[in-house]
Every structure is written in structure tokens, then in C-alpha cells.
Amino acid sequence: MPASLMPKATAVWLVENTALTFDQIADFCGLHPLEVQAIADGEVAIQMQGLDPVANGQTTAEEILLRLRQPIKDRAHCARNFCRSDRRAEFL
């Protein structure tokens, strides 16, 4: 499974602009959930410019909205089933 482009910058954007869980963001970016939490807490990637994964073709806005509409109890399961192909995210 290919890694996301600039994973920390992508995680910064997802933390700032979505309500995805740390697990979902970590799975998409190839980071550990605690690293995503540290980004959210401002302990890592301080002053890093976020990279929009929709603008660079890693995922679509519809796929992000689909994850947000899912009940919270189901989100952890879906984070594990989040994969990328052809530099575009697809949720299984």
C-alpha cells in the first residue's frame, strides 16, 4: 500500500479541517495514532503548513464526508479498512 504524500503535512490538514478520528487519520497517512494526537495537541509539526489530500488527488471530499457520517462506534473499524490505490484513497 503506497504511503500518502507528505504524511505529516496531510495529517495536519486532516486534523485542522475534518472531524476524522486519530485512528482514521493515522491509517490514511501511515502514522501512529499517538503521533496524530501529538499533531492535534501542537507537540509535533508545529507551524507546518497542512497539505490538502483532496486538492492533490489522494482522496475526495465525498469519501471524507462518508467517514464523518458513520456512527462513531463504526469509525475505528473503518480506519483499519482504509486503503489507497493509484494515489487516491478508497474506503472499503
Output the number of helix runs.
5
Uncertain residue segments: 79-92
The end-to-end distance, rounded to whole angstroms, is 14 Å
Beta-strand fraction estimate: 5-15%
**Widest β-sheet, arrangement of strands:** 1-2
Give Rg in angstroms: 12 Å
Tell me about the largest β-sheet: 2 strands, antiparallel
Q: List the quaternary state of the chains.
A: single chain
Helical content band: 40-55%
SSE order: HHHHHEE
- Strand segment tally: 2
How many discrete domains?
A: 1
Q: Please state the average pLDDT score.
A: 78
Q: Which geometry do the CA atoms define?
A: globular
Q: Structural class from helices and strands?
A: mainly alpha
Write a brief structural summary.
By secondary structure, the chain is mainly alpha-helical. The protein has one domain (7-91).
Describe this structure as you would to a colleague.
This protein has 92 residues and is mainly α. It has one domain. Helix content is 50%, strand content 9%. The protein contains 5 helices and 2 strands. The chain has helices spanning 7-17, 22-29, 33-41, 61-69, 72-80; strands at 82-85, 88-91. A two-stranded antiparallel sheet has the order 1-2. The protein starts with 6 loop residues before the first helix and ends with a strand.
Ordered list of secondary-structure elements with their pairings:
Layout: H1 7-17, H2 22-29, H3 33-41, H4 61-69, H5 72-80, E1 82-85, E2 88-91
Antiparallel strand pairs: 1-2
Helix pairs in contact: 1-2, 2-3, 2-5
Question: What key attributes describe this structure?
Answer:
92 residues; disordered C terminus; two-stranded antiparallel sheet; 50% helix; mainly alpha
